[in-house]
């Protein structure tokens, strides 16, 4: 009975809360008036909480059910889209086939096209239709031009297929102007960052018979792409990337000086991409070679061709064809040529790279001036496949994934063989990338010691030693090659210097070290950088350009510290002589002032341990000269105005304070003492600052001269109220 009443109460409460005119404030007010006490309110609260939990569970159940239905619907939409695309593709091919048939055969062709279209619709409806394109990643044509599709069109059909697909790509209409261009393969890929292996974007690749087009997805326009890049197959290298879960089914495209990494949908599609890219490159190179041979071959008179093909001419007139038969005769029966492909496989397996390249050089030398009949072409095709395998192994030897121990000399073997294979640009790129990874690893493995200067010594030794060894090895490996490689090395050295400066600045400037420590660290870096001049490499200007902002910040920060300290001392100034209490303290002060360049400090010392100067002026002198000495260690021409303006600002703080005190003080004795301190500043300190600045910079500073000359106002007319500023 109680349970039935409870269920009815819960249902009544649910209906009340779900009603359209429900108002929470009115409901709570009525509930408070009707309740007998706190217990009734607690029970009602528990009922509402139970109802809320039940509602939440029902909501979760409904969301999960709807989510499953949404996933199933999306999957069906994807299948339908694939089938519709296939159907559109088949209809386009049928249309192109019908248009190529002469008008006299149009009725028969129309009947055949209708039958083929109905058969294609049956294929689209099944799973085989979806497998035919694999999400637009199937073959449309082989590199040789023979279609891998059952209904492959001719040259005109290939052009229409390319036009139809590239209409979905924005910004690539100019590609269609190339005659004889057709689509070989296309498919979806995912691009990853080459350095950090982070996913970048979804792309779609279109492989033509002479180039590769990469297009990015347009999320807001389904099925449409935007042009991203176009790479000629002549300068494109394909490298298989070893699976390293979860990074798998990837391959790399090398286009000097950049590289891109793509991930296929699965291992099968990755293998197809690698095979088709190599086949297309090989077909393109073969086509170019044939065109060159045809262009270089002398053309005979037209009548010779007619006589050679006329069976009714005499045998004597067929003699012009005899040299052509002799030209095709190339002796390939030698044992070393017959066993050459197998010997190359053995050399690659045994990592005898030098032996493999020696065999290739021997073959190229033998076939250098000989024609290319079919047997020679077949041999070259076999050898080119081995060359591709050898190149992949050498590229892997230079990849940063390999062990970086052994220094730059460890790369010499692979680099030299790549250069012998005629791939100097690739060898240069891979060598510099390997060394960049080695330098980055060496810097990252350095332990950050407690003493900053000790860490900077280690950092400079590791970096500049690696840079020096890399430069010497580069000069050995690439001597006599294209000068463009040396330009690439200079660009790499600048990039490596940026890596060094990042680590340097993080430890020296970001940690707010003192100016003296920063100056010593910069001095150490400059000394190591100058060692590169032994090999003709001057990177001093680069390290200056990269450090100028950090040094400016350090000078500005330390200037502000000196100004604040000087203002604080000025606020407590009593204009009294200094009493150092002991002769040792006085002697120490004399040595400090002498090291600051004040050679006549003796005339300002009095009897016993007294100094006839204010503590504020003496402290200002030591601090200013210390700032100048440390700043000159950091100096280079780009910092000239920054240092000069900082000095002027610091000196003006003291000058303005003395000027103000001299004008405001009424006591004659104190006024005379202030005038003595002013004389020390203007006649001793300012000339010393000016002289030391000129010695460190190499030229005088007009601003400091003007500041010293302006101080004559005070000495000529001490009672004047005119300010020095």
TrEMBL record:
Subcellular location: Cell projection, Growth cone; Cytoplasm, Perinuclear region
Protein name according to UniProt: Exocyst complex component 8
Short name of any one Pfam family annotated for the protein: VPS51_Exo84_N
Keywords annotated in UniProt: Cell projection, Cytoplasm, Exocytosis, Protein transport, Transport
Subunit: The exocyst complex is composed of EXOC1, EXOC2, EXOC3, EXOC4, EXOC5, EXOC6, EXOC7 and EXOC8. Interacts (via PH domain) with GTP-bound RALA and RALB. Interacts with SH3BP1; required for the localization of both SH3BP1 and the exocyst to the leading edge of migrating cells.
Gene Ontology biological-process annotations: exocytosis; Golgi to plasma membrane transport; protein transport
Function description: Component of the exocyst complex involved in the docking of exocytic vesicles with fusion sites on the plasma membrane.
Domain (PH) ranges: 182-282
Bias type Acidic residues, positions: 312-328
Entries under CDD domains matching the protein: PH_RalBD_exo84
């Amino acid at each position: 009975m109680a349970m039935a009443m409870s269920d009815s109460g819960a249902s009544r409460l649910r209906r009340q809360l779900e009603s359209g005119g429900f108002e929470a404030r009115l409901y709570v007010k009525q509930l408070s008036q009707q309740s007998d006490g706190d217990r009734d309110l607690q029970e009602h609260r528990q009922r509402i909480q139970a109802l809320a939990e039940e509602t939440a569970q029902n909501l979760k159940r409904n969301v999960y059910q709807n989510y499953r239905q949404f996933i199933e619907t999306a999957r069906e939409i994807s299948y339908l889209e694939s089938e519709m695309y296939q159907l559109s593709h088949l209809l386009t091919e049928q249309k192109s086939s019908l248009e190529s048939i002469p008008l006299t055969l149009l009725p028969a062709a129309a009947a055949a096209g209708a039958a083929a279209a109905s058969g294609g619709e049956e294929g689209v409806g099944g799973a085989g239709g979806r497998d035919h394109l694999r999400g637009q990643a199937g073959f449309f044509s082989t590199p040789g031009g023979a279609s891998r599709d059952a209904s492959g069109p001719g040259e005109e059909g290939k052009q229409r297929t390319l036009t139809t697909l590239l209409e979905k790509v924005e910004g690539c209409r100019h590609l269609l102007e190339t005659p004889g261009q057709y689509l070989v393969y296309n498919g979806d890929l995912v691009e990853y960052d080459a350095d950090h292996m982070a996913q970048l974007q979804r792309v779609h690749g279109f492989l033509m018979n002479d180039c590769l087009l990469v297009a990015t997805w347009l999320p807001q326009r389904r099925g449409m792409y935007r042009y991203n890049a176009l790479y000629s197959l002549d300068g494109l290298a394909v490298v298989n990337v070893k699976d390293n879960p979860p990074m798998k089914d990837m391959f790399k495209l090398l286009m000097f000086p950049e590289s891109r990494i793509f991930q296929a949908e699965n291992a099968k599609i990755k293998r197809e991409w690698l095979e088709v890219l190599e086949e297309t490159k090989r077909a393109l190179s073969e086509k170019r070679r044939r065109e060159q041979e045809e262009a270089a071959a002398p053309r005979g008179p037209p009548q010779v061709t007619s006589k050679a093909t006329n069976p009714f001419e005499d045998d004597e007139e067929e003699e012009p064809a005899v040299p052509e038969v002799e030209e095709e005769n190339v002796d390939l029966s030698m044992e070393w040529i017959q066993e050459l492909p197998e010997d190359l496989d053995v050399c690659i397996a045994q990592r005898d790279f030098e032996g493999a390249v020696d065999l290739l050089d021997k073959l190229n030398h033998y076939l250098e001036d000989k024609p290319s009949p079919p047997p020679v072409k077949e041999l070259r095709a076999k050898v080119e496949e081995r060359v591709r395998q050898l190149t992949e192994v050498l590229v892997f030897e230079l990849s940063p994934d390999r062990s970086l121990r052994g220094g730059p000399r460890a790369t010499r073997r692979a680099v030299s063989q790549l250069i012998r294979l005629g791939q100097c640009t690739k060898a240069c790129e891979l060598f510099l990338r390997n060394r960049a990874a080695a330098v980055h690893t060496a810097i990252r493995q350095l332990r950050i010691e407690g003493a900053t200067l000790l860490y900077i010594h280690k950092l400079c030794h590791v970096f500049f030693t690696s840079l020096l060894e890399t430069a010497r090895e580069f000069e050995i490996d690439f001597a006599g090659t294209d000068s463009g490689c040396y330009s690439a090395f200079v660009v790499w050295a600048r990039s490596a210097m940026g890596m060094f400066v990042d680590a340097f600045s993080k430890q020296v400037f970001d940690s707010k070290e003192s100016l003296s420590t920063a100056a010593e660290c910069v001095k150490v870096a400059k000394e190591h950088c100058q060692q590169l001049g032994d090999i003709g490499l001057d990177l001093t200007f680069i390290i200056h350009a990269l450090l100028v902002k950090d040094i400016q910040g350090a000078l500005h920060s330390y200037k502000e510290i000196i100004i604040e300290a000087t203002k604080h001392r000025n606020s407590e100034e009593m204009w009294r002589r200094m009493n150092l209490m002991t002769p040792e303290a006085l002697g120490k002060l004399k040595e400090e002032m002498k090291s600051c360049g004040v050679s006549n400090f003796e005339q300002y010392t009095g009897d016993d341990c007294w100094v006839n100067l204010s503590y504020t002026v003496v402290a200002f002198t030591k601090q200013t000269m210390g700032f100048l000495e440390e700043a000159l260690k950091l100096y280079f021409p780009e910092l000239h105005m920054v240092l000069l303006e900082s000095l002027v600002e610091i000196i003006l703080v003291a000058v303005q304070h003395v000027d103000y005190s001299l004008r405001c003080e009424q006591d004659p004795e104190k006024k005379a003492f202030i005038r003595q301190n002013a004389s020390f500043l203007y006649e001793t300190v300012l000339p010393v600052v000016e002289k030391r600045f000129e010695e460190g910079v190499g030229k005088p500073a007009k601003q400091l001269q003007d500041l010293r000359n302006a101080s004559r106002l005070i000495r000529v007319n001490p009672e004047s109220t005119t300010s020095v500023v």
